[in-house]
Amino acid sequence: MSYLARWQRPELTVGPAFGRLFNLRDELDRLFEGSFGDLSRTSRLLGVWNPAVDLYEDKDNVIVKAELPGLKREDIEISLHDGALTISGERKSGEKVENAEARRTERFVGRFQRTISLSSSVKADKVSAQYKDGVLTVTLPKAEEAKPRQIQVSAN
Fold first, then answer.
1. Helices 16-33 and 36-45, axial angle in degrees (round to 10)
2. Where are the alpha helices (H) located in 62-152, listed in sequence order?
3. CA–CA gap between residue 27 and residue 52 (Å, rounded)
4. Which residues contact 89 (CB under 8 A, 6 or more apart)?
5. Which residues are CB-contacts of 124 (< 8 A; sequence separation ≥ 6)?
């Protein structure tokens, strides 16, 4: 297996303003070229947690699946307003390990909110949600006017 190595230009002798500009560019390069672990660490430092969401659509339903591991059902809130589904809640901090210092913490805690714009109108009174094994599944039945229709062609 071969590995790619990033070529780094030799340091240039420039004034302090340009040096800071190059440092900023290097930091941005590291952010975008880094591993997902680095990106998740940056997100955690910013206090951001957005659970992964999948969106499916068939002829009768819009289905949204969200990964919410470690949450209790009562910690999840779902609302539907103006053609947008909002899933929000809070993951509480885990148990502390007695007499131990954390060496690495990668699990997100805190509030989150995901809003998904729906491309079809849905029957709000028929929406259902199921939470099992850390995955929330929201099924939104399409309104009749949003379902595809077969149109008969008549001969004249």
1. 110
2. none
3. 26
4. 68, 71, 75, 76, 77, 111, 112
5. 80
Q: Determine if the pTM surpasses 0.85.
A: no
Query: What is the per-residue DSSP string for 69-93?
Result: TT--GGGEEEEEETTEEEEEEEEPP
Secondary structure of 4-46 as H, E, C letters: CCCCCCCCCCCCHHHHHHHHHHHHHHHHHHCCHHHHHHHHHHC
3-class DSSP assignment, residue 124:
helix
Question: Which tokens is 14 given?
Answer: 């420039």
Structure confidence by residue, pLDDT tens digits, 80-120: 998 899 999 988 877 778 888 877 777 778 889 999 999 88
Question: What type of residue is 113?
Answer: Q
Tens digit of pLDDT for each residue in 25-82? 666 766 665 554 444 444 545 556 788 999 999 999 999 999 999 899 999 999 999 8
Give the gyration radius of the chain's Cα atoms.
24
What secondary structure letter does DSSP report for 125? G
Residue position matching structure tokens 């954390």 = 102
